[in-house]
Amino acid sequence: xxxxxxxxxxxxxxxxxxxxxxxxxxxxxxxxxxxxxxxxxxxxxxxxxxxxxxxxxxxxxxxxxxxxxxxxxxxxxxxxxxxxxxxxxxxxxxxxxxxxxxxxxxxxxxxxxxxxxxxxxxxxxxxxxxxxxxxxxxxxxxxxxxxxxxxxxxxxxxxxxxxxxxxxxxxxxxxxxxxxxxxxxxxxxxxxxxxxxxxxxxxxxxxxxxxxxxxxxxxxxxxxxxxxxxxxxxxxxxxxxxxxxxxxxxxxxxxxxxxxxxxxxxxxxxxxxxxxxxxxxxxxxxxxxxxxxxxxxxxxxxxx
Amino acid sequence: xxxxxxxxxxxxxxxxxxxxxxxxxxxxxxxxxxxxxxxxxxxxxxxxxxxxxxxxxxxxxxxxxxxxxxxxxxxxxxxxxxxxxxxxxxxxxxxxxxxxxxxxxxxxxxxxxxxxxxxxxxxxxxxxxxxxxxxxxxxxxxxxxxxxxxxxxxxxxxxxxxxxxxxxxxxxxxxxxxxxxxxxxxxxxxxxxxxxxxxxxxxxxxxxxxxxxxxxxxxxxxxxxxxxxxxxxxxxxxxxxxxxxxxxxxxxxxxxxxxxxxxxxxxxxxxxxxxxxxxx
Lengths: 304, 280
Prior knowledge:
The complex is a heterodimer. Chain A is mainly α.
């Protein structure tokens, strides 16, 4: 690190530069989590405002602390929550795999293009994510509806006689997730693939390897970090997704983010919603740590 | 023969990939000009949904509010993000630096529902103490600055990390103080990163529906909240018109950015050539 950098600075302003963003993140990011944690141990009480009982109370000259574990117990005993967690992981996992299968060839092909055209191609990949996420999900409603464009097209060419029910089923949720998160899969794959040394592949070809074998033995193992980063970037937000299952998934698509919002708004059960949030965070902790580890290795690898 | 097969593979992957990415958006735009209310049957060209949209005062108010929030979010996030990037790339280890880095980057991978819930619960608790309104425009602004700060800091700090520190050191050896070095050397060099960070925060804020839904009150309906509540009830051609305008703005912005980048690149090359000629 640069030793001269802050020597000539007034001692106060160094601390202001550290202090302002630090304080902001402590107050508006760290403390909110502690509040969520605290409320997850309290109990719902509709008569109060806000609608939960405080944990710490001053009763008869004694400060009493009541930790209510029932919110967490419900999460592990109520089949609804177990199903919601299970199907969130399943839907996010399958969508991630589909995004990888679709995204890898695209990233691969773009990485093999000449530099000027690959920059334009990558810009075209990222461009849709600069338009509204909601709009991109909404676009699929008109396509997947019972009398929507896809069904009309399939019936006209005679593939099906009756419209397929896709909208408001989990299938629509898969399509929505893959569509919205595909750029997040392609981007890390592409940044990994352009770093590969082409001479390795050339050597393999010279030694008589078939392209397919060379890909499996060289390119694929080398792109492991990109695959992990891309999968985590899709998987982590997809597990907590709310808008896509709400708009495309219909009532059968149970997902934990949706359950959290329902608990909070419809049931006004703030403690339950908080417990759901804490559990979701614990569930995502492992993938988040894997992601950070891979990112860290990438950065360190670039420096050495 | 082999290269022909390779070409075939390249073009079919690109063709299918870009069709998948762009066709739904194109269909959405085409149907914004549809006469019929049924957004899936074409019945003639019409501007009527645009007319309806421009007479929809609630939608216009929501759009205007979203733009204002996005503007101040991006501005706040760039200021805080520049400070955070200075801390991450230019400062010695200090007590709590690891926590600092974790706090700044954690919102990158945090589901929106968790951020929204924690923000609201914090505003309610603090509001109870301070007697403030927990839901409103300022709560949305604070929530948006907090979650976009992570993205902005990543953009700015990666630029700062690759910046040649010898320039800054040279200026300091010549007696400039740190503040002057920052404003005269560092800031001009990182300006492109500040611009892209600002634009990123602006679009993220303009796009957010989940976090805003948690912390918005009756008087603070943003555009995404308004759009979400109307598309939940099914198709609405007016929303297609909103979408078309948004896509056009983004596309124009992208073309402008691309043109500006090319222009800067060429100018830089010309300057370098001139400098070389002068030396020779």
